[in-house]
């Protein structure tokens, strides 16, 4: 092996079958067009970043499993689940917000916000999303914890995999996969609870009385969780996920990323206790940074696509530095610009406010404000009007001209209410509701669409153009809230 | 074709050996499992050839076809709406209107049946058509516009072959020589006056006597028509065969009247009731 790396250094030699630690990239450098997967046995590590990861893992899993159980009172007869996507009922509930299918742009806005927030965080702190918050990372971490508890740490697992099959090995593997599948089942099951009422659905789901569709989706998410977190792991990040491929576009030399400080670490080499550190770097080439890496890379090769920015190598290296009596943070969170300065013996401050950061902040603010404004001004009454296309008009026995319309009142309120219908734009037009000879006051059920057929007629002998613009209005009688919708009144050619 | 697999000097990565105009491709090996997933999809596709109709002559062991799927869907839908249809059969049309769910179902069903059976003559939405196909959306009814009358017209037709058909025949005053052309002209002038459009007062007075003697028995003394006899109102603004003087004269001359088939033998009772309610709500029902 004579690899020339980005920094122009030669990595330590690795021989085939050598048990010494080497990165995945180093192990498959001579691979043909199709490569066998090289299994990553990541070692457990302790340190501040590992602790942050445990805390976030607990928090995110708690959110995921508990949110469907939160209740939110929306009045009698209404769904009382705080977060619920009711597909058959065509409604989505998020705390006090309820959206109808035609308001799906709120979800679009949320996704746009999420995308910009991801861009912002990435340009500031690199791939912290990937390393700490991505479901793939969270569930993989959880699966690795189970694996470690059953099969032991890195070396024990490697040994176990090399051993011939035995009752002990079989028992451990079966136990591991069984627990993985249980976790996967809980994951797939909890997903369903975002789409149905959790407390009343969980019993029937366990008793096998729920819809076939429920079990199809439970099976789907169970399978994907098991495969992606148990088997595919870092392969998802490296080969399937598009984000690593283009997240580099958000990074610049001022973005904080996991960095091996090569000006301090090189030249690396084994170090015998008690000998001098003069004339050599702090890196003792112990390989612990590679051993703990969940994607199996060597951070000393510099920035690379496979790095998810979790910082476990920082924890690992700090532990080693402490043991050998050198300052911590040989691997650290830093920017390329600062590293360049440090290598030249200078220090420069972090630069947080950069044009791209400001642009992302402005975009987030604009989209956020537009969404807030939209939400604050969201109409709870809407009106839509379709005019009859055949016949375009009707001449009545007394010579009056009449047009027919279908009015839909969208009552997004939680109470039944009456609405006064009116039409504006034709002075002598008379509005009548089909099947109702009264006062054009109609009712609408709570949280539903009320449809009425409405006739507008103009008495005989009035000069009517072929087309006259009209505005229909529906006024909620209890509040005076009014929704309007335009249409036209058509008449025979004069 | 791969030419020379070598190590790229800058990155230290092997090349694939492919070269295009001096541009070489670095080898980033695809995972083997990815390749196997691709093969698995090919194997999966074989399942389709076995189970489903694919190439001509290969009909699949499931016996699946879009046509059968449609037939199943239609049968299931018929089964689903059967209780509603039973309710409609058991309920008089005037009573159906008081049950909102049933009325909405009936109007929707009537709309579909109307488009299939009635729209060719009466037009989409009952707009009517020139030449004796009356509009069903206006408020004039030759044979009556309450639900029972509409139902009877739909079921038995007008001048149809059915024994219970609605039947009436206006005399052919001109063709059969009952009135002279001058008398027909005067009568037409009087008919125009019924809707306030007469131009020659003397002719109106002459026509008044002829109308009273020949026409008033069916069309009424004031020309308001008589639904029991299918005699249309002559005093309103709606004219089935045209309302100018020439058209009215022609109607007196040859006695025009349309034919509508009886639907009771072609459509089931529930459909006829749904059609009735649909037509009734088009705008003019009484």
User: How many alpha or pi helices of chain A?
Assistant: 16
CATH architecture designation of the domain at 68-165 and 260-280 in chain B: Orthogonal Bundle
Q: What percent of the residues of chain A sit in helical stretches (DSSP H or I)? A: 25-40%
Strand content bin of chain A: 15-25%
CATH class of the domain at 68-165 and 260-280 in chain B: Mainly Alpha
What does this structure look like?
- By secondary structure, chain A is α+β, with helices and mostly antiparallel strands.
- Among the domains of chain A are: 37-249, no CATH class; 381-490, Immunoglobulin-like (Sandwich), CATH 2.60.40.10.
- Helix content of chain A is 40%, strand content 18%.
- Chain A has 16 helices and 15 strands.
- In chain A, the strands form four sheets. In chain A, strands 7, 8, 9, 11 and 13 form a five-stranded antiparallel sheet that branches. In chain A, strands 12-10-14-15 form a four-stranded antiparallel sheet, with no helix packed on it. Chain A has a three-stranded antiparallel sheet with strand order 2-3-4, with no helix packed on it.
- In chain A, 27% of the residues are buried.
- The model of chain A is unreliable at 1-19 (pLDDT under 50).
- Chain B has 286 residues and is mainly α.
- Among the domains of chain B are: 68-165 and 260-280, Cytochrome c-like domain (Cytochrome Bc1 Complex, Chain D, domain 2); 181-254, Cytochrome c-like domain (Cytochrome Bc1 Complex, Chain D, domain 2, Orthogonal Bundle), CATH 1.10.760.
- Helices cover 47% and strands 4% of the residues of chain B.
- Chain B is built from eleven helices and three strands.
- A two-stranded antiparallel ribbon of chain B has the order 1-2.
- In chain B, helix 2 packs across helix 11.
- Chain B is elongated and about 115 Å long.
- The model of chain B has no long low-confidence stretch (mean pLDDT 91).
């Amino acid at each position: 092996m004579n690899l020339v790396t980005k920094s122009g250094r030669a990595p330590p030699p690795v021989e085939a079958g050598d048990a010494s630690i080497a990165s995945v990239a180093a192990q498959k450098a001579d691979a043909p067009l199709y490569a066998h997967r090289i299994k990553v046995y990541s070692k457990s590590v302790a340190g501040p970043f590992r602790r942050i990861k445990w805390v976030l893992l607990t928090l995110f899993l708690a959110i995921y499993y508990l949110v469907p159980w939160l209740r939110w009172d929306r009045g009698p007869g209404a769904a009382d689940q705080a977060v619920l996507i009711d597909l058959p009922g065509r409604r989505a509930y998020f705390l006090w917000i309820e959206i109808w299918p035609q308001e799906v742009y709120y979800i679009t806005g949320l996704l746009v916000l999420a995308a910009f927030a991801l861009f912002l965080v990435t340009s500031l702190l690199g791939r912290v999303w990937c390393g700490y918050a991505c479901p793939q990372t969270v569930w993989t971490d959880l699966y690795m914890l189970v694996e470690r508890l059953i099969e032991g740490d890195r070396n024990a697992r490697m040994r176990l995999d090399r051993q011939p099959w035995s009752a002990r090995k079989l028992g451990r593997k079966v136990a591991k996969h069984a627990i993985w599948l249980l976790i996967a089942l809980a994951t797939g099951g909890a997903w369903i609870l975002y789409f149905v009422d959790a407390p009343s659905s969980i019993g029937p789901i366990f008793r096998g009385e729920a819809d076939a569709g429920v079990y199809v989706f439970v099976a789907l998410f169970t399978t994907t969780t098991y495969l992606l977190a148990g088997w595919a792991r870092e392969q998802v990040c490296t080969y399937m996920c598009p984000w690593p491929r283009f997240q580099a576009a958000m990074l610049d030399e001022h973005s904080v990323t996991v960095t091996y400080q090569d000006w301090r670490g090189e030249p690396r080499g084994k170090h015998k206790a008690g000998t001098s550190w003069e004339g050599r770097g702090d890196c003792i080439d112990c390989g612990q940074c590679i051993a703990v890496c969940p994607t199996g890379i060597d951070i000393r090769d510099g920035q690379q696509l496979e790095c998810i920015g979790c910082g476990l190598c920082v924890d690992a290296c700090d532990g080693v530095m402490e043991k050998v009596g050198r300052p911590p943070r040989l691997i650290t969170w830093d920017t390329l610009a600062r590293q360049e300065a440090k290598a030249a013996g200078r220090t420069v401050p972090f630069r947080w406010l950069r044009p791209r950061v400001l642009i992302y902040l402005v975009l987030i603010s604009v989209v956020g404000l537009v969404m807030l404004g939209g939400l604050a001004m969201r109409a709870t009454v809407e009106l839509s009007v379709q005019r009859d296309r055949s016949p375009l008009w009707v001449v009545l026995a007394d010579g009056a001209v009449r047009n027919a319309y279908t009015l839909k009142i969208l009552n997004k309120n939680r109470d039944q209410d009456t609405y006064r219908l009116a039409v504006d734009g034709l002075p002598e037009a008379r509005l009548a509701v089909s099947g109702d000879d009264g006062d054009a006051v109609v009712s609408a059920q709570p949280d539903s669409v009320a449809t009425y057929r409405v006739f507008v007629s103009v008495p005989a002998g009035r000069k009517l153009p072929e087309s006259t613009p009209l505005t229909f209005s529906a006024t909620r009688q209890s509040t005076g809230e009014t929704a309007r919708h335009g249409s036209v009144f058509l008449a025979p050619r004069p | 074709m791969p030419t020379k697999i070598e190590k790229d000097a800058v990155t230290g990565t092997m090349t694939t050996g492919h070269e295009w105009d001096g541009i070489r491709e670095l080898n980033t090996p695809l995972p083997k499992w990815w390749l196997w997933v691709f093969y698995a999809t090919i194997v999966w596709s074989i399942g389709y050839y076995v189970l489903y109709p694919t190439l001509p002559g290969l009909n699949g062991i499931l016996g699946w076809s879009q046509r059968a799927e449609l037939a199943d869907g239609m049968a299931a839908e018929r089964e689903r709406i059967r209780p509603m249809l039973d309710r409609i059969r058991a309920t008089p049309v005037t009573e159906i209107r008081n049950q909102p769910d049933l009325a909405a179902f009936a109007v929707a069903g009537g709309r579909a049946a109307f488009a299939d059976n009635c729209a060719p003559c009466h037009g989409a939405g009952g707009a009517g058509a020139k030449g004796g196909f009356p509009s069903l959306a206006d408020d004039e009814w030759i044979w009556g516009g309450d639900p029972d009358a509409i139902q009877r017209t739909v079921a038995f037709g007008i001048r149809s072959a059915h024994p219970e058909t609605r039947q009436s025949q206006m005399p052919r005053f001109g063709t059969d020589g009952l009135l002279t052309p001058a008398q027909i002209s005067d009568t037409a002038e009087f008919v125009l006056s019924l809707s306030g459009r007469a131009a020659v007062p003397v002719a109106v007075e002459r026509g008044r006597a002829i109308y009273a003697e020949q026409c008033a028995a069916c069309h009424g003394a004031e020309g308001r028509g008589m639904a029991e006899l299918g005699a249309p109102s002559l005093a309103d603004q709606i004219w089935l065969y045209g309302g100018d003087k020439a058209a009215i004269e022609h109607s007196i001359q040859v006695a025009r009247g349309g034919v509508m088939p009886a639907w009771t033998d072609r459509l089931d009772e529930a459909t006829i009731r749904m059609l009735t309610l649909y037509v009734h709500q088009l705008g003019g029902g009484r």
